[in-house]
Amino acid sequence: MKRIVLTGLAAAFLVVGVTVRAQTCDPQTLDDAPTSRYQLHADGTARDLRTGLMWMRCAMGQTWNAGSKSCEGVATAYTWQDALQAAQSFNQDSGFAGHTDWRVPNLRELMSIERYHCSDPAINLEVFPNTPSVVFWSSTPLETFPTEVWTLNFGTSHVVELSMQSQFALRLVRSGAWPNVIPPPATAPDAATMVN
Predict the structure, then answer these.
(1) What is the pTM of this model?
(2) Residue in 143, 150, 134 with CA at minimum distance from that of residue 76
(3) Helix ranges restricted to H, 8-62
(4) pLDDT tens, 130-164?
(5) pLDDT tens digits, residue range 69-108?
(6) Residue 65 CA: distances (Å) to CA of 24, 49, 97, 113
(7) C-beta of residue 136 within 8 angstroms of C-beta of residue 170
(8) Alpha carbon distance 65, 115 (integer Å)
(9) Are residues 41 and 97 in contact, defined by beta-carbon separation less than 8 angstroms?
(10) What does residue 24 show for φ and ψ, rounded to 5 degrees?
């Protein structure tokens, strides 16, 4: 895992300037997020058997198609405050898959679905189909800079500190909660060990 700080136009490029590329995975590296780790449901949810968390398989703005088992449409970009409000409004408007306790994941939870041996996007596309290779919000603000939030770029696998006023994608989670911890220094030998 790499930690990068971007601001202004460079940060905006992470969402707006995305070019579509095919996912690449390193076959020499252990698959840390195999499909067998998830219980997939026809209602567009997936339960992570390792963490117990239930995820929406689509990003907010996309629509689950049960017939094709895919996410259709384009992920919506939100500011951080709008993302938090969107989760609350979503639950008040009947939620999803019979649940009304969806929320923005904390950074550690978001990192738990990252597929470290893949990029563009760094996620299991069988579990989370049509995930864009963009930045996704976490609910974890920086303690030292109250106007910045930890995000995860699923295109590059970078954890990035970005302004709350930036606009990024959102995936909701429910059930339990993993500890909301700050990532280790960029010199950590193996980012995958963080989520064990």
Answers:
(1) 0.81
(2) 134
(3) 8-16
(4) 999 999 999 999 989 989 999 999 998 899 999 99
(5) 999 999 999 999 999 999 999 999 999 999 999 999 999 9
(6) 25, 23, 13, 21
(7) yes
(8) 23
(9) yes
(10) -120, 140
Question: Helix or strand or coil: residue 14?
Answer: helix
Give me the pLDDT at residue 194, please: 37
Residues in the chain: 196
Quote the strand ranges of the chain, DSSP E: 2-5, 24-25, 38-40, 45-48, 54-56, 63-65, 70-72, 118-119, 135-141, 148-153, 158-163, 173-174
**Residue 180: Cβ within 10 Å count:** 15
**Residue 129 to residue 44: CA distance in whole angstroms:** 10
Are 138 and 107 within 8 A, CB to CB? yes
- Listed range (4-13, 15-24, 61-70, 148-157) with the worst mean pLDDT: 4-13
Q: Is 33 helix (H, G, I), strand (E, B) or coil?
A: coil
Going by pLDDT thresholds of 50, 70 and 90, the confidence category of residue 175 is confident
CA distance 35 to 98: 23
**DSSP-assigned beta bridge partners for residue 65:** 70
